[in-house]
Here is the input.
Amino acid sequence: MLTPEMTKIDSLGPAEQPSPLKLSTTFGDGVVNFIPPCSAMPFRVERRPDQEPAEDVVFEKAGPREKIYFDPARTSAAIVTCGGLCPGLNNVIRSIFYELHHHYGVENVWGIRQGYAGLDADNPWPPMRLTPEMVQDIHREGGTVLGTSRGPVDFAKAVDLLRELGVNILFTLGGDGTQKGAHQLHQEACRQGYPLAVVGVPKTIDNDIAYVWRTFGFWTAVEKAQEVIACAHAEASSAPYGVAVVKLMGRHAGFIAAAAAVASQDVNYCLVPEVPFALRGERGLLSLLRERLAERDHAVIVVAEGAGQEHLAEEPEQHDASGNLLNADIGPWLVGHIKRDLKETGKLFTVKYIDPSYIIRSVPADAEDALLCDAMGRSAVHAAMAGKTGMLIGYWYNVLIHVPIELAVSERKTMSPESELWRSVLASTGQPIRIG
Ligand code: F6P
Here is the structure.
């Protein structure tokens, strides 16, 4: 159970310097405001019969503080992007840089190259000094101009390099693995007595970070996935007994598959890691599919990459460099079973398989994600300049908040089968609550 203690944010020391931002401290005067230190977002806003009220558990609201910890003239910052790509990485880099440079007057901003690997001086990618010219157009491009990689770093070496560069603030843009690394870096800096502010910006198209209602890049990925589903629908509905199977990313969480299915309204079965399904049996997927084809002559199935792993349990376990369990490939497995089953019907049929893979995440951010990237990037700067550390920017009931990294990485967000999103999936697909 969450306690007020667990949402407290670490700080490097008292914030005593006046902020250089020209904002107001008076609400109602028509001038945009500093965020007062007491501003908070309740953890729980919904009252539910099964839950105790948790009124004393709140998150700090993100945003500019009237008093800051760092003297901008004597502050250097660095930005690192790690893990898989995500639309909007360049937007966040750019907004962090411009907020530091133009508004706080921080001159030295370093780009750490190729993820955490670039924090090891023995690697061949020295940090680069960012300039306004360098970053001015980067938000129009997918990917990350800094480069990225998976895998850990020797945290003592990383703190050495940051110390050598004189870096006081490190922004870590990445998912669960990256933020776990950020937490270790924060702990290492504390152990060495080096006053380093470590502030994370949570990134992943999977949208699976706790206390972050939506990660940047997620909506863009959903938009791209929806385009793919439209193509799948065209394929399926243009052939007798036409089936199209679309596999979408989503390692442990089915948010992309679910959201794209609802957005498209073309999907008949959506399979996600959080909801097991049976293949065979009277109410299994293959029987349902036969029924659907007999009635409507076509079907679109969306399967998240992490779905149905229980069916592939005999496959050897593998992990990526970030330590994430790699899923066995559900797409071809499913297609193989569907083809074999439909063959038995003796009908003419077509099964098309589409795996857009990285295409949904290597694109630039759409407008909605661009807004979130900008807000998250600038909020990260405000938090860091105020001396907050060991935290990431969360998103709670549409408000940006500060979340201790330790808390955010202590659990993984998944899509609840009792959520509104899953209810919408069931309503729009018409699939039964349980397949099997
Ligand atoms: O960042 C999340 C994600 O896109 C997952 O959906 C996917 O499983 C994984 O990254 C693939 O990452 P990569 O192949 O780049 O290591």
Observations:
- The chain has a mean pLDDT of 96.
- The two ends are 34 Å apart (CA to CA).
- The pocket of 6-O-phosphono-beta-D-fructofuranose is lined by residues 83-84, 150, 175, 204-206, 249-251, 305, 320, 361 (CB under 6 Å).
- The longest strand covers residues 242-248.
